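for ur thesis appendix - O-antigen/teichoic acid export membrane protein. copy paste whatever u need, i formatted it the way the template wanted (i think)
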Amino acid sequence: MAGGMKRLAKDTAVYGLSSILGRMLNWLLVPMYSRVLAGTGEFGVMTNLYGWTALLLVLLTYGMETGFFRFINKKEIKNPMQVYSTTLISVGFTSVLFTIAGLIFLLPISNSLGYAEHPEYVAMLILIVSLDAFTAIPFAYLRYANRPIKFASIRLLIIFLNIALNIFLLVVCPWIYTNHPSLISWFYIPDYGVGYVFIANLIGSVLCLLLLVKELRGFTYSFDASLLKKMLRYSLPILILGLAGVFNQTADKILFPFLFEDKVYATEQLGIYGACFKIAVIMVMFTQAFRFAYEPFIFAKNKSEDNRKSYAEAMKYFIIFSLLIFLGVMFYLDILKYFVAPDYYPGLKVVPIVMLGELFFGIYFNLSLWYKLSDQTQWGAYFSTLGCVVTVCIIVFFAPLYGFMACAWASFACNLLMMVISYLVGQKKFPIKYDLRSAFIYFVAAGILYAVGMLPVISSEAIRLLYRTLLLGVFIAFVIKRDLPLRELPYIGRFLK
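the 3d part is after this line
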């Protein structure tokens, strides 16, 4: 048992850290994009199309990843590879069908999305989504087969390739073309810009499929229609929940261009919003890291007691950690703003709103334990659907008046609403005694320090940063004094003794 837990912890670290590292590496491309792409409009094109990609990827996998894990581990399944084979054939068939249909109707689709001049952008995204949806199943198989190293290695290799291709096509090639055009004029188009981002992604998706060929061979393919029906019946609620969840995160990027008659203006504004939204993604990455690093210790610490105490304790530290990240980003925004080019600075005002929205979503994610543990996952679909309605209404009615600020507030309101309702319903269905007093105290403390740090007008950037650093230190000292005594921490506590 101890060995199994040890392996579980190790595998979780590999999967989790590779996911966080991968996301961070892709995130680091944003400063380059904001400086080498021809204006904020091209960043807006990328933001819009990748919003569609995220939504379509959920649609094309239609919950079959989760369904695969559920059915391949069932005791009554005599031939696990038949589950894998059936899943591969199903997702492969729908991916091919989607590709064929998308390419046949490419021109009307491109026209309706506003990309009549560049239908190849849409074509590349269709191929990328289809490939990524199909390869999601071999990746799931690697997890089932307890092969985290290969899983993480392929993921990271594709990310590094994508970064290298982006740098080559967007930075190196323009320099070569300016100084020695004859060397690359046979393939390089100087003004293709954001198109090269999609080309790099497509190359990475094709290579990913090739690297997973071994997981597609060495067994007999067989298709079980009755098994597929059961899997689809199980996966359909997951699909609905996934679509609602992703749409909550991408609705602003998808809907924004349709709300303005001036499409050029819309994509430029979306580009500003999309780039500054990326700064707020720091909250997502750090809270993800928290869950991977801290929660296993919390749950293991109290495994002999009522686990509800562990959930409450994990929530308290999650809130502390998230508020610390929020203050850190906002207090050092004068430095972090250089993450994007000056043309994008008008969008910096969305950062605190989006970060708080992501903080609420993180709390909602932790609260979701109640309906997962009590097998009442339909509530997750209810909450996400309600969130979708709120998000769409705010964006549709207010974005034409207030621009991308309406998108930021839509994210804030949606996540806040889902968090509050999930808590209220959860306390009736699966009561957990969260430390609301501590949560309130930390939110108030962070709010006061934020106001004290941001309101005074300090002309000197150095003095302003020093002042805010001291305030951040006050918050850290408050946390240590109240809930995190240094003597109880590993290594540090031993040193102090």
